[in-house]
Amino acid sequence: MPVTAIIAQQMIAAAVAKADEIGVPMVIAVVDEGGNFVAQLRQDDALIVSIGLSLNKAYTAVAVKIPTETLGSVSQPGGPLYGIHTADNGRIVIFGGGLPIEENGKVIGGIGVSGGSVEQDIACAEAGLAAYCS
Question: Which residue in 67, 89, 97, 134 is deepest, having the highest Cβ count within 10 Å?
Answer without folding.
Answer: 97
